[in-house]
Structure formats: structure tokens, C-alpha cells
């Protein structure tokens, strides 16, 4: 009986041991399963992330493809179905660019185009960024007045690669084949008109002189500035060489007389310095060649503060409102008027012809070599405005109202 009891006890404890063992192995299994499933989850998460990466890659390659296809079927993603013109202008600080921009926008919109007009605050990198965004937004044509005509080659290559024609507006763009057309004024003539005005006002061909003159040119990176200067100097240099016209400061070469950014205050500072160094002893100043109105304004501010002699002949360009007021008041002699309404009409005609695949109107196919190609151009004619003709040219033609000039 005791033996039987002992063997029963042994059997029972074996069953218990086996049961415990089985339990522990099943919990291990559960643990293993749990770990496995966690690992699987982790793998899934990782895979999901990888999938996202793939999505990104897909997105990237889609974008790349889109970029590549830009220019082929640009119209597809246009909500309004209209063709787009991107306009990039240097600044809206000067009246002239403000007027150019407003006018271009109005005229192009009236032709049924969507217009993206941007001003770059005279900051080259801002202009590059604005152009990049116009290109990726699917512009069909770009109208660009560069801040620095030598700094847009790289961004305009993107335009060329996307088959977007580029019209250099008012200022030529250099060292790139990505410029398609150039719309401007005859800028050399702007300079000769200024030089001839000084020659005729001082009667250099009839009087002996000597007459005293100072020279103010524009922004060194703006090729127009060199062209205006060259045109004026080609008229005046013979009189300077003969001694009839004397640059009292001796400052004549372009780099010395250039005005960075065409800034009024820089022209004013330089005139202040010239007056105090060369004219404070009562030396008469007979003429100041100023390439445009913003530089002329600086010279006029300086003269008003520090000059007491007979008021000199002063040239300008653009017929900005402040300068026309000075012309009326006798503080500026003339301004070359570039009727930007003509330029806007010509530029709009160019855009239309390009977008409709028609012959683009040009009137000069030889003059404007940008270092890589001769850019087909349309050049408008400048005329000059004085106190005698401003009413007829500026008011009667509707460019300004009488109120704006009073
Ligand atoms: C334009 C002038 C203007 C100057 C300053 C030149 O490129 O041709 O009309 O006065 O820039 O903005």
C-alpha cells in the first residue's frame, strides 16, 4: 500500500513537472511569436518608410520629367488655359520702371495673357530667384530688364532649356545665347541728343569759352549706361580735346564718373565733393552732363544746397515727374523722353508674334552683339523735352496730366 502510494505520488509529480515545463515552453513560444511579430511590424514600418522614399523618388522623377517636358506641353497644367508672360523689372523705386511695369501688364492682359509682374529691388539674386520661379511656373515668354546685364546667363539657360523665349527689355543681356529678342530705344542716340543739347546751349561752335563741365554717368553693370556715356562723349570730346570745354575736376573716364545703381544720393554726394573741391572759390560751372533723371536729381539737390554761381545746363533722361517739375522751375534744362508707351506696344507685338508663331517685328539686326550673338532688336526713337515743349509732348499726348506736374 505504501509502495503503491509512493508510486502514485511520483506519477503525479511527473505530470505536474511536465505541465509546468509545457507552460513555460508555450510562454517562450508566445514571447518568440510576440518578438517575431514586433520585428515584422518594425520591418513593415521600415518598409513603409522605404515606400515613402520610393514615393519621394517617384515624385522627384515626376518633377524632373515635368521640368524636362516644360515647354512641350506647358498649357496642360494651366488652370485658366491662358498663355503666361513673366515680366522681371529692376526696381519700382524709379517712376519710369513703375510706369513700364503697369503699362506692360495692362497691355498684355488686354491681349488675353496672364501676366506675372515682379520687381527685384535692384538686387541681382532676387531677380534670379524671381526668374527661376517664373520658369518653373510655366511661363511661355519672359520679358526681362536686367539689373546687371552680365549676371543672368545661368538662370536664362534654364529658360532656354525649357524652350521659353526671352525678350531683353530696355537693357541688353550679355554673354548668353538665351536672349531671343531685344526691345529698347536707340540708347546711343540718347547720349548724342544730350551731348548735342550741351553743345548747342553753350554755342560751342560759335563761342570761345572755355566752358566748365562735369560728367555723371550711370550704373557700371548696365550696358545702357556705357552707351549713353559713349554717345554723349562722342559729341563733346572734340571740344574737350580742343580746350573749349574743360572738365574742372579732371574726372572723365566712365568708371570714375559712373553712379552705382543710378542712385540719386550717390550722385548728390559726388556733386557735393566736386563743388567743395573745385567750385567753392566761385569758379563758374556751365554744364553738367547727367545720363538720366535720377542722377540729375542728385546734382540738382547738391547745387541747391551749395552752389551760388549762374545755374548750369543740366541734362537728364526719362522725364520722371520730379525732373519735369524741375524743368518747369528752371532747375534742369532737358530730359530725353523715351515714350515707354511705344516700347510697351513694341514689346507686346513681339510677345504676340512669338506666341502665335508669326514673324517678330524688328528694325535692327546688326547693332546689338551681346558677346555671343547679334540679338535681333526693335529700337524706338528718343526725343528731348524742355520747358518749351513739355506741354505738347507730355501733357497733350496723355503721358502726364497737368495736375501730376504742378
Ligand atoms: C534705362 C534708363 C534709366 C536707368 C536707371 C537705364 O537702363 O535705360 O531709362 O534711367 O536705367 O533705371
Task: Describe the model.
Helix 2 (95-110) packs parallel to helix 11 (340-356) and helix 3 packs parallel to helix 4 (153-161). It is elongated and about 70 Å long. Helix 2 links the parallel strand 1 (84-89) and strand 2. A six-stranded parallel beta sheet has the order 2-1-3-4-5-11, with helices on both faces. A four-stranded parallel beta sheet has the order 7-6-8-9, with helices on both faces. It has 406 residues and is of the alpha/beta class. The chain has twelve helices and twelve strands. The chain has two domains: 80-179 and 340-380, Rossmann fold, CATH 3.40.50.2300; 187-337, Response regulator (Rossmann fold, 3-Layer(aba) Sandwich), CATH 3.40.50.2300. Residues 94, 96, 170-171, 218, 222, 224, 262, 292, 317-318 line the site of beta-D-glucopyranose (BGC).
Describe, in short, the structure shown.
By secondary structure, the chain is an alpha/beta fold. The protein has 2 domains: 80-179 and 340-380, Rossmann fold (3-Layer(aba) Sandwich); 187-337, Response regulator (Rossmann fold, 3-Layer(aba) Sandwich). It has helices spanning 2-69, 95-110, 124-136, 153-161, 187-201, 223-242, 254-257, 264-279, 293-306, 321-329, 340-356, 390-395, and strands at 84-89, 114-119, 141-144, 166-169, 181-185, 211-216, 245-247, 287-290, 313-314, 335-337, 377-380, 383-385.
Secondary structure topology:
Blueprint: H1 2-69, E1 84-89, H2 95-110, E2 114-119, H3 124-136, E3 141-144, H4 153-161, E4 166-169, E5 181-185, H5 187-201, E6 211-216, H6 223-242, E7 245-247, H7 254-257, H8 264-279, E8 287-290, H9 293-306, E9 313-314, H10 321-329, E10 335-337, H11 340-356, E11 377-380, E12 383-385, H12 390-395
Parallel strand pairs: 1-2, 1-3, 3-4, 4-5, 5-11, 6-7, 6-8, 8-9
Antiparallel strand pairs: 10-12
Helix pairs in contact: 2-11, 3-4, 5-6, 8-9
Amino acid at each position: 500500500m505504501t509502495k503503491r502510494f509512493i508510486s502514485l505520488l511520483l506519477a503525479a509529480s511527473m505530470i505536474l513537472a511536465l505541465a509546468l515545463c509545457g507552460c513555460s515552453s508555450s510562454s517562450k513560444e508566445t514571447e518568440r511569436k510576440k518578438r517575431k511579430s514586433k520585428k515584422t511590424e518594425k520591418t513593415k514600418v521600415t518598409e513603409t518608410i522605404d515606400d515613402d522614399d520610393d514615393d519621394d523618388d517617384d515624385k522627384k522623377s515626376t518633377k524632373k520629367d515635368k521640368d524636362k517636358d516644360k515647354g512641350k506641353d506647358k498649357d496642360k497644367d494651366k488652370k485658366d488655359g491662358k498663355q503666361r508672360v513673366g515680366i522681371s523689372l529692376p526696381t519700382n523705386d524709379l517712376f519710369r520702371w513703375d510706369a513700364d511695369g503697369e503699362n506692360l501688364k495692362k497691355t498684355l492682359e488686354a491681349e488675353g495673357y496672364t501676366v506675372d509682374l515682379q520687381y527685384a529691388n535692384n538686387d541681382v539674386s532676387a531677380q534670379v530667384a524671381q526668374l527661376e520661379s517664373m520658369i518653373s511656373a510655366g511661363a511661355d515668354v519672359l520679358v526681362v530688364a536686367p539689373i546687371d546685364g552680365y549676371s543672368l546667363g545661368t538662370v536664362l539657360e534654364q529658360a532656354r532649356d525649357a524652350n521659353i523665349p526671352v525678350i531683353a527689355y530696355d537693357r541688353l543681356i550679355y554673354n548668353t545665347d538665351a536672349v531671343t529678342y531685344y526691345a529698347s530705344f536707340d540708347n546711343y542716340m540718347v547720349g548724342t541728343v544730350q551731348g548735342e543739347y550741351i553743345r548747342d546751349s553753350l554755342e560751342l561752335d560759335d563761342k570761345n569759352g572755355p566752358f566748365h563741365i562735369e560728367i555723371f554717368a550711370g550704373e557700371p553693370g548696365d550696358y545702357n549706361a556705357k552707351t549713353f556715356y559713349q554717345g554723349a562723349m562722342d559729341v563733346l570730346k572734340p571740344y574737350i580735346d580742343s580746350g573749349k570745354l574743360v572738365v574742372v575736376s579732371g574726372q572723365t573716364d566712365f568708371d570714375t564718373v559712373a553712379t552705382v545703381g543710378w542712385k540719386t544720393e550717390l550722385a548728390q554726394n559726388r556733386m557735393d565733393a566736386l563743388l567743395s573741391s573745385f567750385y567753392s572759390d566761385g569758379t563758374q560751372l556751365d554744364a553738367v552732363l547727367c545720363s538720366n533723371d535720377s542722377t540729375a536729381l542728385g546734382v540738382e539737390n547738391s547745387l541747391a544746397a551749395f552752389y551760388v554761381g549762374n545755374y548750369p545746363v543740366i541734362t537728364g533722361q526719362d522725364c520722371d515727374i520730379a525732373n519735369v517739375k524741375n524743368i518747369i522751375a528752371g532747375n534742369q534744362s532737358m530730359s530725353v523722353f523715351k515714350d515707354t508707351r511705344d516700347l510697351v506696344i513694341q514689346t507686346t507685338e513681339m510677345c504676340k508674334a512669338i506666341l502665335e508663331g508669326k514673324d517678330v517685328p524688328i528694325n535692327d539686326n546688326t547693332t546689338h552683339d551681346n558677346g555671343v550673338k547679334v540679338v535681333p532688336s526693335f529700337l524706338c526713337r528718343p526725343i528731348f523735352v524742355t520747358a518749351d515743349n513739355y506741354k505738347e509732348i507730355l501733357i497733350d499726348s496723355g503721358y502726364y496730366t497737368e495736375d501730376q506736374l504742378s
